[in-house]
Amino acid sequence: MAQPQPNPTGSLLATDGKPHPRQDTLVIATLVLGAVAFVAAQFHHLHLLSSWTGLIGILTGAYGQFISVTTRERFLLVIGLGASAIGFFLGMAQGGLFGGLIGY
Fold it and tell me: Which segments cross the bilayer (predicted)?
């Protein structure tokens, strides 16, 4: 049986030639959230932004890994997860999810 040829109109991340809109959306969301969390973690006063975007990026990336279909999707999800985790942990170290908002 012949292998299916990649669809030129399909997803950039789909190596099987089929579109994966949900997975692609999760990949993009995880990468954006990871980038925001990582950059925001470099500034002490942005700990709320970095910790929350990092946490959401970790959850988004974990679900994306669960439903991912291709290696390309998984590769980019791992990059986004790593950036989200670094942003989350640095944000937690600098004040956390609620630091300064609820008591102290």
Answer: 25-43, 49-68, 75-102
